[in-house]
Amino acid sequence: ANKSLLVLAGDGIGPEVMGQVRRVVDWMDRRRAVSFDLAEDLVGGAALDAHGVPLSDATLERAKTADAVLLGAVGGPKWDDLPFEKKPERGLLALRKEMELYANLRPAICFEALVEASTLKPEVVSGLDIMIVRELTGGTYFGEPRGIFDLPNGERKGINTQVYTTHEIRRVAAVAFELARKRNNRVCSSEKANVMESGVLWREEVTKLHAETYSDVELSHMYADNCGMQLVRAPKQFDVIVTDNLFGDMLSDVAAMLTGSLGMLPSASLGDPDETGQRQALYEPVHGSAPDIAGENKANPVAALLSFAMCLRYSFDLAEDADLIEEAVKAVLAAGVRTGDILAPGTRAVSTEGMGDALIAE
Amino acid sequence: ANKSLLVLAGDGIGPEVMGQVRRVVDWMDRRRAVSFDLAEDLVGGAALDAHGVPLSDATLERAKTADAVLLGAVGGPKWDDLPFEKKPERGLLALRKEMELYANLRPAICFEALVEASTLKPEVVSGLDIMIVRELTGGTYFGEPRGIFDLPNGERKGINTQVYTTHEIRRVAAVAFELARKRNNRVCSSEKANVMESGVLWREEVTKLHAETYSDVELSHMYADNCGMQLVRAPKQFDVIVTDNLFGDMLSDVAAMLTGSLGMLPSASLGDPDETGQRQALYEPVHGSAPDIAGENKANPVAALLSFAMCLRYSFDLAEDADLIEEAVKAVLAAGVRTGDILAPGTRAVSTEGMGDALIAE
Ligand SMILES: CC(C)[C@H](C(=O)O)[C@@H](O)C(=O)O
Ligand SMILES: CC(C)[C@H](C(=O)O)[C@@H](O)C(=O)O
């Protein structure tokens, strides 16, 4: 049967970059031994405008039944003043939670042709290849109680709850260990066990799982503040980093920025495999909706395209097709083709479409 | 009356670097129009070994009654396996909480002579001068409920609570606005208001206080993950950053590492002024106890010394004396005198003592 893909292009530059992904999907349909059924729907601000909610029940249902979801980006100034529960981001968070996408894979790769784009010295980031595994359905993002409460003295109190269970920690750590085995066999687990009991539990459970099942993988532990420092000081010391939802949000953004090529970085969010081995999955670029350049045919579609490559690799086990896309990206970069965000002296500026053309030609 | 200083040298390199601070205090006593009564006591692992607790009640009492506390560093592998409640860090956290040191000032300055020590490109960090104001007595560090609990199914659950009240947010924001007025008049407030209600409250209260009292200061808001990114991308865009305890822990460490001179960075932790205008205050280097080089007369005492300069400035209003120390540091660096951590081709290696000598000579 054909693979079913649900495209949720979202807001800002989302629709533009997903347009280029569609072109590549079409190309694959025609040229490779794989076929896709591609459907589209709304999420984020676009869904708010159409349905008054950032994610409709119908869309969620379609996302759950699709073989994989490809998301563009959500959010923008237009919806910034909406109350918390209505913001476009809630659509994305609801997808993560309802699809139980607990493992967020964020590669931070420094592309050789783009080493100079980093604010870090070339020798610090050249060859960088880190995989951050961020827990995505627990912790402070979803813990209860939460909210803003009035105090008797007329003041207010804002509360969020960081909470993790054994099960939640073990399943995401297992993903990290499995990935490490296919990479350089090293996992660094990061928390604040010196300050937070949830971090103590995290460290203990990761350590136990390691001893039980993954003692062949090298495991280290690092406080999250130090991990942020070490990412700046010597990022190449890391192979796989596993961490919670909130620390992962911050650390993966710092790691992404080290590479100097935010417009190039994909991500995958995965759930548990079902009986057939298929995981619920959502793929999205790390960059945001970039409202400042939206609609101008300027955005870099590579992150979205590499997210599709991750989809081929992780959801459909089509490593060769994924390689094809990744090689095309490298070739196009090597040829000096650049969107505005990665433009450098001696390279050639192209539009979003132009980048799509170059990639398909490759 | 003499100013009373309590020195808590702590663990690892703490005693060595504080030794050099003592020498400078003595020098000031003799050469400047100010006198200090200096007492010493134990904290962290040192206190654990002596008294079985990381901070004794007697020490806490002395800290509260001193005009200012100068702390070295706490922690080390010797105490790493102790249970959560006994760890050396608890001593430091108890001091912060019991002395109500809610405003943690962490300057991230890139010293001109050390620009090359940064892993970032010189043009990105040269001239960098950021002040991070981190809330230090609230949030996830101290919120209740907290702990590790057994679940009926045999699993465990780790909980921490992020909580902030109006009052806690306003008082630390006020410190940030006041500092900004003496600097470049810009405050960036950082949270995750897109995900956490405590962040929504933070943003609202900072905005209100700004409108009421500090509308002359330029205020912006930035999500904490983006703030981590922006620190790597273009750190000079910031003047003062104000943020909560946990985000402040991470962001200030990333900012510190940008400067390439962790061994150079001081911090101040301040409470509310009393009737006489005096604040409870603790000063400590940003670096940790560095057990790997402890006792080897290798550590850089400059961060501890600049922490003492902050003490002169903030606790005793002795700006001239503080300038004297800061100028001596710059002169010594310009003369190419370096401890091992900042050694570079063409500079002269000195010991902890040697650095103290050079600074006192200046
Ligand atoms: C948009 C926002 C809710 C989201 C998050 O905080 O998780 C984003 O920063 C991310 O990292 O995917
Ligand atoms: C030692 C530790 C408890 C502390 C913290 O997390 O606050 C340290 O990282 C700091 O930033 O001062």
Fold topology:
The structure is a homodimer of 362-residue chains.
Chain A: E1 3-10, H1 14-31, E2 36-41, H2 45-51, H3 57-65, E3 68-73, H4 88-98, E4 103-109, H5 122-125, E5 129-135, E6 143-150, E7 156-165, H6 166-182, E8 186-191, H7 197-213, E9 218-223, H8 224-233, E10 240-243, H9 245-258, E11 266-273, E12 279-285, H10 302-314, H11 319-334, E13 337-338, E14 348-349, H12 352-361
Parallel strand pairs in A: 1-2, 1-3, 3-12, 5-10, 8-9, 8-10, 13-14
Antiparallel strand pairs in A: 4-5, 4-11, 6-7, 11-12
Helix pairs in contact in A: 1-10, 1-12, 6-7, 8-9, 10-11, 11-12
The complex binds 3-isopropylmalic acid (2 copies).
